[in-house]
Amino acid sequence: MNPLRIAALALILAGVLALVYGGFSYTKQTHEAKLGPLELSVKEKQTVNIPIWSGIGAIVAGGVLLAVGGNKR
Q1: This prediction's pTM
Q2: pLDDT digits (tens, 9 = 90+) for 24-46
Q3: Which residues fall within 8 angstroms of residue 53, CB to CB, at 6 or more apart?
Q4: So what's the pLDDT on residue 72?
Q5: Are 73 and 27 in contact (CB under 8 A)?
Q6: Where do the domains of the chain lie?
Q7: How many angstroms separate the CA atoms of 22 and 48, rounded?
Q8: 72 CB contacts (<8 Å, ≥6 apart)?
Q9: SS3 annotation, the chain
């Protein structure tokens, strides 16, 4: 398998995952304060939405790479 084909398959997989999940979330720890033996911190949940057009674009770009780069024999 050549690197171009691997990149194309990775783009297709990323596009499908973007369409299925639509985004991801992570927890960010901020605002730490230490008052003697007492420690305070706030955990914020951040959400990143992935637009539908970017998932479709990744699938199309991966398909084009497979079609163009796969026929070099």
Answers
A1: 0.70
A2: 899 988 878 888 888 888 888 99
A3: none
A4: 55
A5: no
A6: 3-69
A7: 9
A8: 2
A9: CCHHHHHHHHHHHHHHHHHHHCEEEEEEEEEEEEECCEEEEEEEEEEEECCHHHHHHHHHHHHHHHHHHCCCC
